[in-house]
From TrEMBL, chain A:
This is Sugar ABC transporter permease. It is a multi-pass membrane protein. It comes from Streptomyces lycii. Keywords: Cell membrane, Membrane, Transmembrane, Transmembrane helix, Transport. Signal peptide: none annotated.
Automatic annotation (TrEMBL), chain B:
This is Sugar ABC transporter substrate-binding protein. PANTHER family: ARABINOSE-BINDING PROTEIN-RELATED, SN-GLYCEROL-3-PHOSPHATE-BINDING PERIPLASMIC PROTEIN UGPB. Its main location: other. InterPro entries: Bact_solute-bd_prot1 (IPR050490), SBP (IPR006059). It is found in: Cell envelope. Gene3D superfamilies: Periplasmic binding protein-like II. Keywords: Signal, Transport. It comes from the Bacteria. CDD domains: PBP2_TMBP_like.
């Protein structure tokens, strides 16, 4: 959870930085040098494992990537393919559906977190563990088990539906339902993660506010909307940033749940599964690099927008 | 200063790592000056058999030892490509029809012609379709190891119950359709047949049976009326409810439905025999027949082969191993394991006799009219198009003809890219 945007901590860090510079005068001082030393491991890792591959990918996106070496410069051809290929548009649309479904997780997690923070609730840690369990389970295992549950002829989902007289379908192999079926599993497996964040967020809200509100006659619903939600907004902001990034990068569940002969394959493909297909199945690494770059820009853009608009609704206490 | 020295240290460390990676396979290493061959494969089921063959080979060639490296199929080709780029690929490795042209055309395989001619090795002991499949530009690039054909697996009990005579070599598409209709029994949840959208098992067989083709002279055959006939045989049976739709067969594969006696007929690989044999019910009342004929007789043949890396510095030893793998002795060891049919002529009997309850000889009989698995340089690109575009007709949504024509158009675009 190192990414937690604890603004207070950031400001504190900024302040100390300024102070050291003032204290040591010109040039890097001893404190600063040791600070660099401390960040060196992560900085090196970033340079070697992120920045360098990123630059390489950018370069490859302008080449026709020889399967066994030997790349040739093709200019904007790959980007042209990305723009023209209909499957890219479809994958983008599917990815946005996953994102929308991912964002639905947040209100669910907030309500659950609020319920679990009710004073006097017994067995909170058991619930917490139960909700968190799917998140730490291997996506491969999750996908396989859900495929069995979803099985159109022998699955438990349809078995349960038949009890109430509903005729089930082939959830993951029907093009009209598959994307939602996978999205549901995604929500299910992530809700525990956001739950933990929100439980911690709610715990940090001083009890006095609630007591004061109660004395003023505010009911539980009002207290939730007027106290819990605004004071939880920094956590919600963090969760929504992470959630958007995660759902835009959906790969493993789709890969595991969709067999190559699934007729719904095209309607569930995300940008990342398409990337995988181009790069590793169809030997079109150049096009895949261009696709990856497009995805990076999309993520960067959406994250920027979120940071941009956070002032409108995020309250840092 | 400290920072610079740290960087210098990092730079100095890199080549050490690099040599550490590539050096692993090159040295004859500590096994007493013997040449160590690395052999790449993907099927864990075949490891015991391959190990026995390697043992037999080492006994004949004490100066060479073979190290088997298994990479699961899903990662096999990605790993191999990356290893090829980095120069750390195994010396000898498994090759399939989908990939051979890609590898051969990029010059990363060692052509075998010079060795074959030097040693006077008779390639005629392996089926011509397979030898042809692994040739590119007039050169032979891999030694066939085994093969697979497709047969009609059926359930005698379900046939008896419906009063339908068992399939035999007189069957045509019409007999097949009539039988599928009669065998379908919705009240018991039994379908007559499972016509999966899985090219090798179903439509790659019926397309040539109808007189059509998948690819010819670098052009798609999917807009050929006869090819479409070969596809329609299946979508028609789905539309009539004699076969489950592709949605149902995605959730539960045709093979599973056959094993659990939910379908009376299933087109499937010869390699599945041992799995069928392991099911007591199918062993008791399962059977195999040759594929029903359309205009013509046909079945798809595919087989794996052993190829030598073009970058291997031990090509001589590698050839000795590949030659041994292509010999009668290795073929017999492999056949006895019962996993695959060896491609060496005359060694198939061992496999046929290993499961006397099934008449496995039908798989061998079909060799006479077997059609090679269609492939080009970037086979995977247009194979992916098939699943994308045929899914709708295979689930009863939209006609097969239009889908096939779209497929032909897009496949031709993909084939253009190969040039």
């Amino acid at each position: 959870m190192a990414v937690f945007p604890s603004t207070a901590a950031a400001q504190a860090a900024g302040r100390t930085g300024r102070r050291t510079r003032k204290a040591t005068g010109r040039g890097p001082g001893r404190t600063q040098r040791s600070a660099y030393l401390f960040i060196a491991p992560i900085a090196l890792g970033f340079l070697v494992f992120y920045l360098w591959p990123l630059l390489q990918t950018f370069y490859f996106s302008f080449t026709s990537f020889g399967v066994f070496g030997g790349n040739t410069w093709v200019g904007g051809e790959n980007y042209q393919r990305v723009v023209q290929d209909v499957t890219v548009g479809r994958a983008l649309l599917n990815t946005l559906v996953y994102m929308a479904m991912g964002l639905v997780t947040l209100p669910v997690a907030i309500v659950l977190a609020d319920l679990m923070n009710r004073p006097g609730l017994r067995g909170v840690s058991v619930y917490r563990a139960l909700y968190f369990l799917p998140f730490i389970t291997l996506p491969t295992a999750v996908g396989l088990v859900w495929n069995w549950l979803y099985n159109g002829d022998f699955g438990m989902v349809n078995e349960a539906l038949s009890v109430i007289g509903v005729d089930g379908r082939y959830w993951v192999s029907d093009p009209s339902t598959a994307v939602y079926a996978i999205g549901t599993v995604m929500v299910w497996s992530q809700v525990g993660y956001y739950l933990i964040i929100f439980i911690a967020g709610i715990k940090a809200i001083p009890r006095d506010y609630y007591e004061a509100a109660q004395l003023d006659g505010a009911g539980p619903v009002r207290r939730f909307f007027r106290i819990t939600l605004p004071l939880l907004s920094p956590s919600i902001f963090f969760a929504s940033v992470i959630c958007v990034i995660n759902s835009l990068q959906q790969f493993d569940l789709i890969y595991v749940m969709m067999s190559p002969v699934n007729p719904a394959l095209g309607s569930t493909q995300s940008i990342v599964t398409l990337f995988y297909k181009w790069a590793f199945e169809e030997n079109s690494q150049g096009g895949a690099a261009a696709l990856a770059f497009l995805l990076m820009l999309l993520i960067a853009g959406l994250t920027y927008l979120q940071f941009r608009f956070q002032k409108r609704w995020v309250h840092y206490a | 200063m400290r920072r610079r020295s740290l960087l210098a240290g990092a730079v100095a460390a890199t080549p050490v790592l690099a040599t550490g990676c590539s050096g692993g396979g090159d040295s004859p290493d500590g096994s007493g000056g013997r040449t160590v061959l690395r052999y790449g494969m993907w099927d864990p089921l075949q490891v015991p058999g391959m190990r026995k063959i390697a043992k037999a080979f080492e006994a004949e060639h004490p100066e060479i030892s073979v190290k088997i490296e298994v990479t699961p199929f899903d990662a096999y080709w990605t790993t191999l490509k990356t290893a090829m780029r980095g120069g750390s690929a195994p010396d000898v490795f498994w090759m399939n029809a989908v990939n051979i042209q890609l590898y051969a055309s990029n010059g990363v395989l060692r052509p075998l012609d010079e060795f074959i001619e030097r040693d006077g090795f008779d390639m005629g002991v392996h089926p011509g379709e397979l030898v042809g499949m692994y040739s590119y530009g007039g050169e032979r690039y891999a030694m066939p190891k085994d093969f697979d054909t497709i047969g009609l697996w059926y359930n005698k009990e379900l046939f008896d119950r419906a009063g339908v005579p068992y399939p035999d070599d007189t069957w045509t598409w019409d007999t097949l359709r009539d039988a599928a209709a009669e065998l379908t029994d919705p009240s018991r949840g039994v379908h007559g047949i499972t016509g999966e959208m899985w090219r090798q098992y179903t439509y790659y067989n019926t397309i040539p049976q109808a007189g059509g083709y998948v690819i010819r002279d670098g052009r798609s055959g999917f807009d050929d009326p006869r090819t479409i006939e070969g596809l329609r045989l299946w979508t028609d049976m789905i539309d009539r409810g004699w076969s489950p739709s592709q949605s149902a067969m995605t959730d539960t594969r045709g093979r599973q439905l056959y094993l659990s006696e939910r379908t009376a007929m299933n087109y499937d690989l010869s390699a599945m025999a041992s799995q069928m044999y392991a099911s007591p019910a199918i062993r008791d009342h399962g059977g195999v027949a040759v594929l029903p004929r359309g205009r013509e007789r046909a079945t798809t043949i595919h087989g794996l082969a052993n190829a030598i890396s073009g970058k291997s510095p031990r090509a001589g030893a590698a050839w000795e191993f590949v030659k041994f793998m292509g010999s009668r002795r290795a073929a017999e060891i492999q056949a006895r394991e019962g996993v695959t049919i060896s491609s060496y002529a005359g060694t198939q009997d061992i496999w046929v006799k290993s499961m006397p309850e099934f008449e496995l000889r039908h798989f061998i009989d079909m060799l006479d009219y077997a059609v090679p698995y269609p492939a080009s340089k970037y086979t995977a690109a247009w194979e992916n198009l098939q699943t994308q575009l045929l899914g709708r007709p295979w689930t009863g949504k939209g006609g097969i003809e239009e889908a096939a024509r779209t497929l032909a158009r897009q496949m031709n675009l993909a084939l253009e890219q190969e040039k």
